[in-house]
């Protein structure tokens, strides 16, 4: 496993992170989820991403159980706040009260005294952003969070800029990470957000690097394999984000054929490797419902291709792919729990965003790095020999 600095911080995170969206409390049985976490740690993964809203706290609870006994100082726990975790008008949002109460509940579920990265799950326009950021700063000062970041703020670029402006003006700890959706089928963040992150030293934690499984080719020919997201209670994520479209399935088939022609490990690890090859990406967040799936995705670290090779992969995707599909253009956002009146809402997308051929190179368009400002590229280090694990952890 290799490690990269997360944004402008000195925090080293594994190039592959393990997420828990739809898997913990969803696809994977509890015992299997715990085995997956343990195997991930053995493989060198140190970044574990979750959110309080996943299964209304269930994912955090399960992750806490899975991490029991592992050395806390070798683990980076990232969680998120904003979604609806309890009923009533105070059960969601980014107000100071909700943030403080949600943090206390997350710590209890995870069984830890602090989290390493606390993220705003998505913009919540009803909450004044300065109130949110002051609450985050106070949590850092109280020792309950080591760092702060945001997720899905690529959909509100003006708000993302305001976050940096306020934190800089107040002398508060700056966000070190942004968590957007990013894959070969969804490159909307290259329009503006990648350049913004490079300019301000914000590391990207990319979620859905395999486009919810579409890039694996499992849905070829309109198939909906048993046990896949398309046949589960999470099917609406595929349709809501327009990830599973005929155009994207065809693009995935072309990509799979290209991968096979090159003798590469498989479409999933190659898709993850492409994300890791992009500027400003610190880690790719994968999901896994089986240990074999985890191990397959980690093969991304074995994929070493030149820029010209990656351009071939991009061309295979772009050849006739649907530039209007939401998974490519950002026409729909990831569903996260949100308002006081709904269990889930869609993160709003910005109109007019597109992807595919004719896209400016990262950092060359709106929000690009100012002239003379070098793009911040993540530093890498090789896994040191792991010390023997204690029988009991610090929990």
Automatic annotation (TrEMBL):
Entry coiled-coil feature ranges: none
Q: Which organism is it from?
A: Eiseniibacteriota bacterium
Name all NADP-dependent oxidoreductase domain ranges: 15-316
- What's a single GO CC term here? cytosol
Give start-end positions of Low complexity composition bias: 356-395
Q: Does the keyword Cell division apply?
A: no
**What stretches pass through the bilayer?**
none
Which Gene Ontology terms cover its molecular function? oxidoreductase activity
Region Disordered, as annotated, extends over 340-395
Q: Which InterPro entries match?
A: AKR, AKR_Detox_Biosynth, NAD(P)_OxRdtase_dom_sf, NADP_OxRdtase_dom
Q: Which domain of life does the UniProt lineage start with?
A: Bacteria
Q: Determine if Lipoprotein is one of this entry's keywords.
A: no
Give the protein's recorded name.
Answer: Aldo/keto reductase
- Which keywords does this chain's UniProt record carry? Oxidoreductase
One Pfam entry name: Aldo_ket_red
């Amino acid at each position: 496993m290799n490690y990269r600095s997360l944004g402008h911080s000195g925090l080293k995170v594994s190039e592959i992170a393990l997420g828990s969206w739809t898997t913990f409390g969803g696809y994977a049985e509890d015992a299997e989820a715990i085995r997956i976490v343990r195997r991930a740690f053995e493989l060198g993964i140190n970044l574990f991403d979750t959110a309080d809203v996943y299964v209304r706290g269930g994912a955090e609870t399960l992750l806490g159980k899975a991490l029991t006994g592992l050395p806390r100082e070798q683990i980076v726990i990232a969680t998120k706040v904003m979604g609806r975790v309890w009923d009533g008008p105070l059960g969601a949002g980014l107000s100071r009260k909700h943030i403080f109460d949600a943090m206390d509940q997350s710590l209890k579920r995870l069984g830890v005294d602090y989290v390493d990265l606390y993220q705003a799950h998505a913009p919540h326009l009803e909450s004044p952003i300065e109130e949110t950021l002051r609450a985050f700063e106070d949590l850092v000062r109280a020792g309950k969070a080591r760092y702060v970041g945001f997720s899905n703020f690529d959909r509100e670029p003006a708000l993302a800029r305001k976050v940096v402006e306020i934190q800089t003006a107040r002398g508060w700890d700056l966000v070190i990470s942004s968590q957007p959706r990013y894959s070969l089928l969804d490159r909307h963040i290259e329009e503006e957000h990648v350049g913004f992150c490079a300019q301000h030293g914000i590391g990207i934690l990319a979620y859905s690097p395999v486009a919810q499984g579409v890039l694996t080719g499992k849905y070829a020919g309109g198939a909906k394999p048993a046990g896949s997201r398309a046949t589960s209670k999470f099917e609406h994520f595929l349709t809501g984000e327009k990830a599973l479209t005929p155009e994207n399935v065809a693009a995935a088939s072309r990509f799979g054929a290209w991968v096979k022609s090159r003798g590469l490990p498989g479409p999933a690890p190659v898709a993850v490797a492409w994300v890791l090859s992009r500027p400003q990406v610190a880690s790719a967040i994968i999901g896994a419902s089986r240990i074999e799936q985890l191990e397959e995705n980690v093969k991304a670290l074995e994929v070493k291709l030149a820029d010209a090779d990656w351009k071939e992969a991009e061309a295979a995707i772009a050849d006739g792919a649907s530039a209007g599909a939401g998974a490519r253009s950002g026409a729909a956002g990831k569903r996260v729990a949100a308002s006081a009146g709904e269990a889930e809402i869609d993160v709003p997308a910005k109109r007019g965003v597109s992807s595919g051929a004719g896209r400016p190179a990262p950092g060359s368009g709106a929000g690009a790095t100012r002239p003379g400002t070098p793009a911040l590229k993540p530093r890498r280090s090789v896994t040191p020999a792991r010390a023997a694990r204690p029988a009991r952890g610090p929990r």
